[in-house]
Each structure stands twice: as C-alpha cells, then as structure tokens.
Amino acid sequence: MSQPTSVSSPLVTPRLLWIALAVVVGALLLAYLVAFDQGAVSQSGMYLHELMHDGRHLLGVPCH
Amino acid sequence: MSLSAAPGARGFGAILLRGLLAGLIAGLLAGVFAFAFGEPKVDAAIAIEEAAAPPAAADEEPPLVSRDGQKAGLFLATGLYGVALGGLFAVGFALLRRRLRTPDDTRAALGLAAAGLVGVVLVPWVKYPPNPPAVGDPSTIDQRTASYLAILVIGVVAVWASVLAFRSLRSGAAEWLRLTAGLGAFLLVVVIGFVLLPNIDEVSATFPASLLWNFRLTSLGTQVVMWAVLGLTFGALTARRRSPVTEAEMRSATV
Questions:
Q1: pTM (2 decimals)?
Q2: Which value does ipTM take for this structure?
Q3: B15 close to A (CB below 8 A)
C-alpha cells in the first residue's frame, strides 16, 4: 500500500518494525497495569492497584 | 504501509521520543485537572460508600494505601497512562502520517488526537459512562471490563469508517455530501455497537444524581485534557518543520 518512496525516505526495515511492535506491546502493558491489573502482572499484590485507584475511576475505566 | 513519517521526515526514534514526552506531559496535566476537580467527588462518593457499609472489621487493619496515598497515586496513574497513550500515538502517527494527507505535521497530530478523543473517549463515555466509587457491582467487573474494551474498539472503527466514507466520495463532490457520508458511517457503526453491547446500569436509586453527573463530567474533562494536551504538545514538538509531502503524493495516497 505504500507509495513509491522518494530517495530521502528511510526504508521500512525489519528492525524498525520490531521496535514499533515492541513499543505497542510495552504501551499496552503499561496501560493494562494502570487500568486493569490486580496484582497478576505487577506482582505487588493489590498495592499498585490501590495506589492508582483514583486515576482509574477518573480515567473512565470500569473499576470494582 | 510505511513506517517513515514522510519523505525526509524525522526518523521513527525522534517521533517516538516526542510521543512519549507529549504523553507524559498530557498525563501529568490530566492528573492536575483530576486532582483539582475530580478528587472532591471521589471523596464524597467514598464517604457515601462508608456510610452505607461502615468498615467494622476494617478498622483493625489499615487500608493498603491511604487516601492521601491514592491522591498521590492519581498522578502516577495518569502519568503512566499518558506515556502509554503517547507511545501508541507516536506509532499511529508514523504509520498513518502519509494518509493524513496534510503537509503540516501539527495539523496531522491534531487530527489524530481529535480522532482518538472521539473514538477512545467520547464513544465509550456515552455507552459506558464512568462511575465513582460506591457505584458498581464488583461481581460484574469482568463483564464490564470486556464490554469497555469492546466499545473502545468500536469507537476507533467508527472513526475509521467515517474517514473512509468521507474519502470514498471524490473531492469534487459537494462538501455537505462528503460530511454527511462521514457522519452517517460513524453513526452506523456506533449504533450497531451500542445495540449489540449489553446495557449496564448499576447506579443505585439512592446515589445522589448531581454527584454522579459531576463525577462523570469531571472524568470526561480529565480525558479531554489528556488528549488535547497530547495532540497539542506533540504538534508543538514537531512544528518546526513542514514535511515535504508533495501535493501529488497526497493526491495519490490511498485511503
């Protein structure tokens, strides 16, 4: 789907795609930690869950 | 599909750094908004919660995190959430940059943020308005979480469908016709999503209506601050250069 690229356009290298994928995975993990985790991922028991309780409510995420 | 922003544009690393920084700033400012306007409502809701069910045995052991701790944790939550959104925003910006069909990076960033605001915030807010503490049945949290994720996806698809429909008409077509097509496609997807997903209403008859409304409005405000600052900051950080996407390239870019 990409247009014919001009000379100055950096090529899409596999390395770049892997970095982008890693960023997406990392970002989703971070968002999960804030929004949904109840200790399973953070391994902190409910501590992080409780710590970020108000943020979750005010960011519109369903919570208890 | 091109990961490069535009010919001659900054590399992906530069875009990513700007996205993460813009996300952090957006998250912290959203935290300030939520702290100033949201915390009083959360406090009021918790007071109602505790009046309804006095923590008899809980008096023995202190809560895991104090209320003051939770108010500080608010900034951690919005900050981390902002960084996550900023990372996704940067990847989205890099992937979609050519298809945003504007030579101006700032306008592209603002357009993407506006799309995110509508798809990820407004649509979910209307279908599943957020609830303060003391509202909600803990036993349905899994179902509510799944429904919330579904409406996020539907919101994004609705915005995408809207752009597709708008662009499916030739640019020679009347502007009102293109806008109507875009709006129609958006509403079609949203209505289908709203009908298919379950309705959830767990607000008890005794919970103060004004407090509920004010909390929901504040939650919306928090997220509007988040996306507005994300778009504006990212736009500002990329504003110094106009990307040399030519008119011809924009015209030939596929939808």
A1: 0.86
A2: 0.84
A3: no
